[in-house]
Structures are given as C-alpha cells and as structure tokens.
Amino acid sequence: MENTEILKIAIKNAIDHEGKASEGAVISKVIGQDKSVLKEIEKLKAEVSRIVGEVNTKTYPQLLDMADEAGMDLSEKKPVEPSLELKPLPNVKGRVVLRLPPEPSGYMHFGHAISFMINYLYREKYNGKLWLRFEDTNPKLLNKMDEYVDSFEEGLKWLGVKWDEKKFISSDMELIYSYGEKLIQDSMAYVCLCTVEEIKAKRLTGNACKHREQSIGKNIELWGELKSGKMNDGEAIVRFKYDMDSKDFALRDPSIFRIIKNDYKPYSLWPIYDFASVIEDHVCGVTHILRSSEFKVNVQDKLREAMDLNHPNILQYGRYNFKGTPFSKRKIRALIKEGYIRGWEDIRLPTLTAIRRRGIQPEAIKEFVLSVGYSGSQHEYSWDLLFTLNRRIIDERAKRFFFVSDPVSLNVVGAKEAEARLQSHPSKELGLRIIKTSGKFFIERKDLENVKAGDVIRLKDLYDIKLKEKTGAGAVAEFCSSEFDGKEKIIHWVTDDNVKTKVTIVGALLNDDESFNKDSLKVVDGLGERSLQQVKKGDIVQFERFGFCILDDDKTRDFIFISR
C-alpha cells in the first residue's frame, strides 16, 4: 500500500478520535484493505509509526485541511470544539482583584486546588490581581503552621497558580482592633461576659443579655482589659450589636472577637473569621469573591454595612465532592487517630501531596475545572473523569515497558538468542529498549490459562511460538517463526533478566455508608523488564496491557497505579 493511502487512513482515524490517531487502529485498517502488507509487517509498523507521529502533531483544523488537500470525502466532519472557558464575571469595572484565603491548619487538598484554580483562571482571563492571604486568626489550629504554609505555597507553584501579593491576616491586628473599637464607640458592639451556655440559651429565645445595654465607657474599659491580656479564654467575647429578634440565628448579636491565649503572636484577643475577612477584603481591594456555598454571607454583609466597607461581588458554588473520599479535616484526623490511614500523605486521601503521588498532572486539574465549571448546587464527581483527562496528558509522555503480574515461567525450545527492539512510545520519539532473549521467559498466568497445547502465540515484538505443554510451574513451547501474520494472540513477556516490581492500586477510602473500606489498597506483585531500572522516582510509565503507573519508591521499585 502506498504511503499516501496510509496517511489518509491516519488522518481519518485522528479526526474520528479527538485529533489523535491510534497506531494499532491504523495498522488494522491497512491490513484489512491489503493483506499483502503482512509479508513486510515490520516495515509497515515502522512506516505507520512515522506517519501517525506526524499526524498527531496537527491541530484539528489542520487535520481537516490535510483531508481536503488529499481529496478525502468527510461528509460527517466533526465540528471544531470551542476552547473551554469559564463564564464571565458580573459587574467588572476596572481591575479584577481576587483572593485565595487558606487557613494554615492542615495540608492543601484537592478541594483547595479546584477553588484556587478557578480564581487563578479568572485572574488570567481579566489580567487581574490575586492575593494569597493566610487566615491565621485561630492560634489553636496553628501548631504546625510553617509546614502547612509550605504545603500551600508548594502546591500552588506545582499547579502553576501564581499570586501577586501575599500576606498573613495577623500582620494587620492593630488595624483590625481599630475597626472593633470604632464599632464599640458607635454603640454597635459590646463586650459580653456571659458564659457560653448563657449566650446559647439567650440566642435561642431571642433575649438580650444585660451587657448589651452597658455604657460605651464600660465597653471601652473592658475592651482595654481584653487587649491587654488581663482576661482568660472564655471569660468574655465582643459581640456585634445587630438584632436579637432576627429569624436568622447567626445575626442574633454574633461574636466578632474572642480570647485565645497563645505562643504564636503577642495577642490574646483574636477576631472571628467573618470580621477579619470583611476588613481584609476591603484593605486588599477585592472585587470578586468565588467560594463554596458552605460559607454563609449574611453576617459579613451586615458587618460591611456597619463599617462602611466595600461590597465585593460574591459568587458561591457548590462544593466539589468525590465519591468515597473525605475532604473534612475532622474526618481525616479521626481516620489517622483510629489507625485506618498512615497520615496526611496517605495516597487514598485528597491532599495535594497524595494527588501528586498518584500521577495527577496540574494540566488535568485545569482541564477538569474548565470542563465541569461551577454552579450553585453541590455535585459528587467520580475520580474517573479526572483520570480520563489526566490520561490524555500522560499518554504522550509515558514510556512503555513490559510488566508481568502473577508470573509463570515459559521455556521456548529451539529459540536462538535474539534481540527485541522495542519502541518506548508508539508515536513519539522516546527511544528504544533493546532486550536480549535466549528462550527463557515469564508470562502472566492468565495469558497461559487462555491458551491450550498446539496454539500459536505471538511474543509481542519478538516471534511466534507454539505451546507444547503446560507444567506445574509454567509452560514449554517451541519456536515457530519471526514473521507475523496478524492472526496470533499477542502476549507480553519478560526474560529471566528482570526486576521485581510491585504496583499499588488505590480504591475508594470510604464505602457508600462512609465506613472505612478495608479493600481500598491492593498490591500487585510481578516482574518488570530490566529497562525499568532507568526509571526515576516520579516518572510515569505505561505497563503495556496493564496501565499507567508512577514510580513512588526508586529503592524498592514500588509503583502506584494511575489508570488504564
């Protein structure tokens, strides 16, 4: 068959399959049209590999142009898919300013990554400004703050999310105090000395406590005692005077300051999240806030009105949930405490460290965000969608290797010493692996179980063998031919010069009832080709007929399964 005809087949296959042709599919089509090519199958494979590699460098519009130039009839041309893009922001006037507000009380996880990516994509869309603002106003949760801060900063850099300004809210404590004192002077806040139980009871009934009507002078006096550290945790709080009759219980004089004695900063009076956040949004000039709908905005809105602060545009979206995966810090801490998981880096968790260990690429997270967008309702997604997007990315980068799980021996009688020249990628120039063979192999038990004595089998990219007999430990076969006619069952193999290899397969951490899934980790032991010794920690490979895997430990040669 002429190369021009092979090119047409490759172009058609690429157009039909999202712009990427499959080498195997093209070869099958060529053979189907011209059986004579079987006489020079190795030459055909090399030529198809070259042509497919060239075709797969083209964009979808370029492929359509190539089809037209070649005179191909594409009556069912697929429309060019528009580029994915987030919907426009409302009320854009001037420069768009956004913020990433992590609390450094835990490690960055996939939920953060999605939220931060959404904000960053809008920053890029509008050439805006992005703040990285650490919400460090609860010293009780900051025992490992430096480690958590590093987790967020490293995670953001890995994602490709760039921030323009960085700050910690605690650096503005004096400014935040000034706003609190102004509310007291304007009789819009007061110091409450009630117990926690008394405050809860009066909120339920809508009855104000006696401190609500105490004088401004008395409140200022108590405010000074709070700031100076004369009171201990729980002895007093500062409350925003709003409406004890409100149907929204959160608006029944909400707390805005509480006492937290600590070794973190020289302050014992700390602002509540809502209070600090509205002030910081004003100071940073934030124009748009994008965050999950679990955060309520009523209290913040009333505080902005009381303090005459800017009102950013708030867009709330449903939380991104993933089946079988806990995102709550409380649930994760409980799983660690109970011994179900090893720690925050456990590969079954959604922490960014775990996600990276499992081979997810930052480009896949970006594509996921652009694909699913955001809405006001909550959705539970399957990890399969993310791994499908991820597969398209890693497929072009991953070198191919042979890995035999559950191996059994295969002795080929009459086989001469030979060299197998194996392409490291079907369409990319990623080099060759040269494996010397002498007739002693290991194959997968399931492959042996699916054949019987007398069957002819093709050892992939090597030669044909005929099975003579199965033994307790494996099988004996005889050499047939180096020629390939396309009819034989193809199996992969390793020689007796191999590498012991282990692959961990990750499943859902939680069952449907949210109980621990004891089968969430499975280990597959096997043998890999000797070339695997070249693979470095963090490298992604494809084990042919098995799936994509990432090397997690280069000393023990332990891999983590990514996807098929």
Please describe the topology of this protein.
Layout: H1 3-16, H2 23-33, H3 41-55, H4 60-69, E1 97-100, H5 110-125, E2 129-134, H6 145-159, E3 165-168, H7 173-185, E4 189-192, H8 196-205, H9 216-228, E5 237-240, E6 255-259, E7 269-271, H10 273-284, E8 288-292, H11 298-307, E9 313-317, E10 320-322, H12 329-337, H13 352-357, H14 362-372, E11 379-381, H15 383-394, E12 399-401, E13 403-405, E14 407-413, E15 418-423, E16 432-437, E17 440-444, H16 445-449, E18 456-459, E19 463-470, E20 474-481, E21 489-491, E22 494-495, E23 498-506, E24 521-529, E25 540-543, E26 547-553, E27 558-563
Parallel strand pairs: 1-2, 2-3, 8-9, 10-11, 12-25, 14-20, 18-21, 23-27
Antiparallel strand pairs: 4-5, 5-6, 6-7, 13-24, 14-17, 15-16, 17-22, 18-19, 19-20, 23-24, 25-26, 26-27
Plain-language structure description:
This protein is an alpha/beta fold. Among the domains are: 67 residues; 98 residues, Glutamyl-tRNA Synthetase, Domain 3 (Glutamyl-tRNA Synthetase, domain 3), CATH 3.90.800; 163 residues, Ribosomal Protein L25, Chain P, CATH 2.40.240.10. Helices cover 32% and strands 24% of the residues. It has 16 helices and 27 strands. A hairpin with a 3-residue loop joins strand 19 and strand 20. Helix 5 crosses helix 14 and helix 10 packs across helix 11. The longest helix has 16 residues. The radius of gyration is 32 Å and the shape is elongated. The two termini are 33 Å apart. About 2% of the residues have low confidence.
Question: Key features?
Answer:
single chain; 564 residues; alpha/beta; Glutamyl-tRNA Synthetase, domain 3; Ribosomal Protein L25, Chain P; 7-stranded mixed beta sheet
